[in-house]
Design a protein that fits this description.
Layout (H helix, E strand, L loop, with lengths): L5 E2 L3 E5 L5 H8 L2 H4 L10 H16 L4 E7 L5 E11 L4 E8 L8 H15 L5 E6 L4 H9 L3 E12 L2 E11 H8 L1
Parallel strand pairs: 5-6
Antiparallel strand pairs: 1-2, 2-3, 3-4, 4-5, 6-8, 7-8
Helix pairs in contact: 1-3
Amino acid sequence: MTFPILETKRLKLIEITHQHVDYLYEILSLEEVTRFYGTNRFTLPVEASRLIDMFHKNLLDKRGIRWGIKLKENQRIIGTVGLNGLQLQNKRAEIGYELHPSYWRKGFGEEAIKEVLRFSFNQLGLFRIGAVVYPENEASINLLLKLGFTKEGLLRGYIHQNEQFHDTYVLSLLKPDWINSQA
């Protein structure tokens, strides 16, 4: 699978490579970013390098796609967005994303996610996009609900992070619901 570059009005969604290690490390070393991310914050740049390797392997194995979110105005990487657990045969995946806190509440996450949803439903032919979100992450839940996702239920003790088990909500967006929301 060749890497699909996507564009929006303000963003370019690009493949994350090792030239982006410093940006990724900067973002994922922040406690406020990883608090609801499902992994502990990074303490070494090599962790960002390993994550980039995993993103690349997932793409090669057709199990995931992760884009770097790059601002067109200054070419800065401000986060990532992507599909995890991609199952082309079953036409489903889970969406995940994070942004540097300096870019929160400016519409960048919504803009990037909308473009990934469009690509997922139109180009990949997916039927279902899921999302797993900590109940405390109200900003993310509200964003997903605004984008048409439906809250399906609570997964008890679903994520182990910082030596604790955490509940998560599972949300989903089905292609027919997405099509209706675009009309």
